[in-house]
Amino acid sequence: MKISLDEHLKQLPFPATEKWPQGVWDIEAFKHGSMSLILFAPQGNDYQTPHDQDELYIVVSGTGILESGSELYEFKTGDVLFVPAKKEHRFVKFSSDIQLWAVFWGKSGGESC
Predict the structure, then answer these.
(1) Is it the case that residue 113 has pLDDT exceeding 90?
(2) CB atoms within 10 A of CB 13
């Protein structure tokens, strides 16, 4: 199976909503069982709220800062970021070329070590 970045980018953005006033910049590209793959390419501000599942972000392009709780993580193309389920997080000070694959998996509430 192949999942095309370009094909999914062409579908963005979706119309603005009350929660995402600058348009919706994510699309589910694939789902299998509890795992889903989302393309996230925000423009302007990141208005996301905590998720019920653990999450990996794979930085396809761009730079910025992931604010996760009280921690700040600088990132660049090629980096991978982890956010546990239910943790408040958002991208701040990110470049206009930001593109991320987000992988969600596992049970609601996340997996414990």
Answers:
(1) no
(2) 16
The pTM for the full model equals: 0.92
Contact between residue 89 and residue 71 where contact means Cβ atoms under 8 Å apart: no
Q: How many residues does the chain have?
A: 113
Q: Are 29 and 3 in contact (CB under 8 A)?
A: yes
Contacts of 48 (CB under 8 A, 6+ apart): 89, 90
Question: For the segment 31-63, what is each residue's pLDDT rounded down to a tens digit?
Answer: 999 999 999 999 999 999 999 999 999 999 999
Q: What is the DSSP letter of 53?
A: S
Classify 5-10+26-105 by CATH class. mainly beta
Residues of 34-48 as b/e, b for ≥16 C-beta within 10 angstroms?
eebbbbbbbeeebeb
